[in-house]
Amino acid sequence: MKIALIAHDKKKIEMVNFMIAYEPIFKKHELFSTGTTGTKIMEQTNLKIQRFMSGPLGGDQQIGAMIAENELDLIIFFRDPLTAQPHEPDVSALLRLCDVYSIPLATNVATAEILVRALEKGDFAWRDVIHKYKNK
């Protein structure tokens, strides 16, 4: 599975801790991330992550392009709902694309944990069906 990881500044430590906790599961998947989030995760884990630009500099849009091309299967985006984000339109666009293309999206630890447990059990086989039809 191809998984994107994004975290607002005040949620980066939470994301790193989450990735440490589930590192054995994530090692089996292809990971993508916005710049700073990916760097912080790689500093604390042995995970390999393809990093894009920082979110405000276009990283959110790069991930959005992958969604539109059906190149992502799951997004974990730890958002900070209490702090105004200068790139809020990009964040809204990313969330909208997840809805349009039926990409599972976790915006907090509780939901991310449910999705990772499903990932561990292989409950994302339906994404393989979508990939199969896309490639025809």
Write down the Rg: 14 Å
**Cα end-to-end separation:** 19 Å
Biggest sheet: strands, sense, closure?
Answer: 5 strands, parallel
- Return the CATH topology: Rossmann fold
How would you explain this protein's 3D organization?
The chain is built from seven helices and five strands, in the order βααβαβαβαβαα. 51% of the residues lie in helices and 15% in strands. It is globular, with a radius of gyration of 14 Å.
Topology overview:
Layout: E1 2-7, H1 12-21, H2 23-26, E2 30-33, H3 35-44, E3 49-51, H4 59-68, E4 74-78, H5 88-100, E5 105-106, H6 109-121, H7 125-134
Parallel strand pairs: 1-2, 1-4, 2-3, 4-5
Features:
136 residues; Rossmann fold; 5 strands; 5-stranded parallel sheet; single chain
Task: Give a brief outline of the structure.
By secondary structure, this protein is α/β, with parallel strands linked by helices.
